[in-house]
Amino acid sequence: MKVRSFRLTRQLNLILVCALSLFMSLAVLGFLRAQEPTQASPLRWVAMGDFGSGMQAQQKVADRLWETYQHTPYQFMLSLGDNIYPIGNIKKLASDRIETPYAPLWAKGVGFYPVLGNHDVIAGFGPAQMAYFKMPGRYYTFSKGQDPARVEFFALDTNTFHHDRQQQQWLRHALAESHARWKVVYAHHPVYSSGKHGSSKALSETLKPILEAAHVSLYLCGHDHDYERFQPVNHVEYIVSGGGGASLRQFDSPEPGSERRLSKHHFLLLSATAQSLTIEAIGVDGALLDSVILQ
Length: 295
Ligand SMILES: [Zn+2]
What we know:
The protein is an alpha/beta fold and 295 residues long. Helix content is 34%, strand content 23%.
């Protein structure tokens, strides 16, 4: 009887030791898992230019923007100008060109951060557009995301930039003060383009040196109704995205450094982490037209 009870106690002890070891192992595993760095989700946004035409193409791009949002949500939209054709009349056309096409995105709180294109200011509707979109000024800056993956945006008015010393000085200072991981400058007019309007000598003399000196990651613009990506010039990536809904145009002979040219309606989907900034051009059928990763 004594021997039997001794065996039982031994078995119980063994079970206890096993259970304790299992519990300790699970606790250690849990602790280690808690120590692993959590992978932060990227900051996502979209960009498009030359869209407020009221044509079917504008609605097609808008539909694809909404479709994309539903499986890959993004936070906001950069408008690269020519928000309303032909003369920027926001008072008359806000509902038709802005509110109706992008209604599902507005409802989700996807805000617009616009710049003014030549069509937006041609008849003096610039201030009315600024008031409508609640723009802090013709040029402004804002920051999104968290360090170490923070992105700082610098919106310009390139209708005047080449002779606007005050704006040039503002950009120099704003860039110098920025400690964001990614600096994205955007405006309506291209520095480089093989499209109908082409490259701008005035901007390559006034804007390009500022972008390079401040190690800007990316310059986005529209104006030419196409998509074009250049090889980085002194570490700055230049992309034209003017395919948001106005009539498409063909290219002239390629400018030096032009890497990808497409005469297609599209928008850009961008995402930033601390390690990389990914830019994808998405067509109206959802096809990935081009992509580039900056590191
Ligand atoms: Zn334009």
